[in-house]
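Table 4 source record.
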Amino acid sequence: MKIIAYPFAGGSTHSYAGLARDHAHEWITLDPPGHGNNMHLPLMRSIPEIVSALLEPTLRASAGQAYVLFGHSMGAYIALAMLDRLVELGASLPQRLVLSGAAAPHSRLLQRHAELPQKEFLKWVANMGGISAEVLAEPQLMELFEPILRADVGAAEAYADGHQRQHHVPVRILLGQDDRIALADGMAWADCFLNAPEVHTFAGGHFFLFDDVAKIQALIA
């Protein structure tokens, strides 16, 4: 089984290294334009644009093998929109869709964290647990990462597709009990699928998935 994964805001190919390590399945995490191995490409500022850019590598990675689509936070919206695109194309579908650390895209209040002034934006990112104090304290690193984070956060917050999907791909939703994402918004994923998804909650904040790696691995594949 392959796990085709999409990173959270500011992430890259290495975002899920802790989950991939010692897992029985092969992980392929795809870099959106402007990230990781694709740093030379211009950033994209919408989920549909990112999906279009990652469609071909997703099709290559999934060819001829059973696979799972996985994403955390922004990556969850990429995974969902990618599944929609695969259904449209009549491509082979995943064995499972796993959406982690994200509110259902139709249930959230519209937020514009990506437009905050620098100090407030970086404070919000730090409070989400998405960046270390050491990185925040390095102006050169932040000069590199801040535009990436703003583009990704803006894309995730603008994504609002909540139509009900009628495919038969099993869906699992993973949520942190102490995440700033309201559990009610996480539970609202049920509105997005004809067949109700499994919902699993974990102790921890937005990056709960790295607190109990074995359990997360078992739920992904």
